[in-house]
Amino acid sequence: MYEPGPPRTTSVGESVELAARSPDADGTYRWRVRDAPADSALSAGDGPDPDATGPPSTATAAGSAASTAVLRAGETSRDDDPVVHLAPDAPGTYVLALDAPDGTHRQRVRAFPDERRETEIRVPAADIPTDGDDEVDRVSLLWPHNENRLGLDRAERDGDEWVATVRVPPGRHGFGFVPDGDRSAAYHGDCEVSGPGRPRISLDAAVVEGDGPEESDRLRLTAEIEPAPAVDDVERAGDPDALDVTFLVDDRDADPETVAAIESRADGRTLSVPLDELPDSVRIRAAPHGERYGAAETVRVETDASDGDAAEATAASVAVADPNPTPEWAESPTIYEVFVRSFAGDTLPTTFAEIERRVEYLDHLGVDALWLTPVLASPTDHGYHVTDYYDTAADLGSRESFESLVDACHDAGIRVVFDLVINHTSRDHPTFQLHSAGVDAYADHYRRTDAAADVTGIDWAELGDGDAPDYYFEWGRIPNLNFDSPAVRGWLLDVVDEWAGVVDGFRADVAWGVPHGFWKEVADRVPDDTLLLDETLPHDPFYGEGEFHRHYDTSLYETLRAVGAGEEPADAVEAALARGEWLGFDDGRSQMRYVENHDEDRYLAEYGRDALRAAAAVTFTLPGAPMIYAGQERGNETYRGPIRWHDGDNDLTDFHRRLVALRGAEPLLRDGDVTFEGRAADVRVVEGDAERVIAYERTPAGGDGSEADPLLVVVNFATEPATVAVPDGVETDLLGDGSAVDRDGGGDGDAGVRVAVDAAAVLR
Q1: N or C: which end of the chain has fewer CB within 10 A?
Q2: Do 169 and 115 form a contact (C-beta atoms < 8 A)?
Q3: Which residue range or ranges hold the Glycosyl hydrolase family 13 catalytic domain (predicted)?
Q4: pTM
């Protein structure tokens, strides 16, 4: 019952959290080391250091005074250690044991070599804004590598520059230098570290017959590993010759001897195991690695011998499947996000009943899923400061009214996605108030930090000498919950259970702030047809390791904004997709493609109507799940303002509706591959701004046997139509936004078809 989950992979210096599942807060838990790499400071029999704390971040520079124990206990007031944090100090395999109320469980962690590289971030002092003539007293480094905590990692003054010495993996890392805790005055830049991207893996499973009557049939898993593509001079490609794979059997499914026997059958990128040596059900994880390691893929192998004897298993009785598959309905859905308190318009207050009265509009638009911003009790309009996880917001309506809305959506064939906010609560939540007042039962419910790092100016109630609640950015109204506490984990798992039976999916707010181990437990806990969508900024492939099905595509989002602003050419879209692969994503269909959301300025207001239509067309004609933020299709220019019903842009709405319908009618737009070569590379701009035009082709997915004709997509971000020459064979524009104007090449000797493209053309 309390087993800690699957084998984990990480790298030296990258901490991994290990916890008992479905914890009983009243139980006793002890972790100890059974084995560790020879070069590690850990030895068999070691337990966690209860007094150790981690450095400010994993990016802390070498030689810093900040240090951390290799194995440290979670930060609670408990005498035992239900949660521990392992920060490997040497490559290799760490084997730990968890003594729990139901027995002893085994947990392995495979650590790969340290990927971090030391570098300096230097910013001229003159580039950091000051308040009048006042000098800047301190500059904080703010970025994902310290979980966006202000005041933890500080830059030092070096002459005319502010300097931070850090250790980070290869890549381009956005950062902020924040003067005196004022994020509105931050200097933003990129820290570029040369090195390869992450490898990507896909597993192929087959059952092969034995060589003779005395030899058992075998399960053969073959890993196909792709190196990272080249993106630019900084983010170079990986070395194909350095790639390998490590197979890890889930310790929950077999005893250590069986695990070792199966893993010993690995030969390079292939694992071949006689069926009679496999347990009835076993999960096998494959992690790619080379110069860096990548996100692992897992398969579940089921052997169903008729008499229950594994020795009788045959090819016909073996099933291999993804243990956390994407729900069929969520393979490529069109998602519609509603900011709940503005959807009814500019006079009526929005309630669940008012949203239900407009479900017919969603049906007319053709969307597959409705994502509602938080609907639980909260003192804010946006709802992300939750004060009660079990009750809906009074101004929106009762739980019964919410369930009626869900039923109405289901009747229209629309799924409902619930905004799950469990990284933090409102500081007005009774639990935080009891925590702050020193009630013992709530002492561990929230994370605490050094009050010296506080930037809010609040005189926080202390629970320990010089401490304060932990929060991200300057978000002092939403303190972070403490996932080191089994009481908190149990509470939030119950919240997931409470709503999983009502809705069809969860969008996880601030998913990056919650431990991976918790999300893995959630993924194993929810019903099989539940969509899990993460908000991870920037997007990270490791949240797809048995956790989330769909991810915010921050790479494409940022590129579409840059193209709209004229800062990048339209063909930067190709580089955005390559960057996703460079980061380690192996399937573009796992991305949620969007141009705006409730946290960002409206694309229309920033870049204009023509660029918006082009950007929306890109999100609908690439692999993945396109998302429309309510009002995007009506011409809204305020990011959380009321939907423009009576004064909306019906032509823009119709354009989005046609995009939705075309995607639904054309399987290649949902499931096909994308290429910028071949016919797409032959597209030439004859009239118009070539920098604002991009072409790509959607082709049948490799190996699916489809004979569908490829689709050629041409997108124009310019304010004026572009005339493009496309290869022969084009017959029609499926979107109807461009038209063939000349099949004879325009009389200049240039053969082919000319197409006038307003925003986009999808050509067959």
Answers
A1: N
A2: yes
A3: 337-663
A4: 0.95
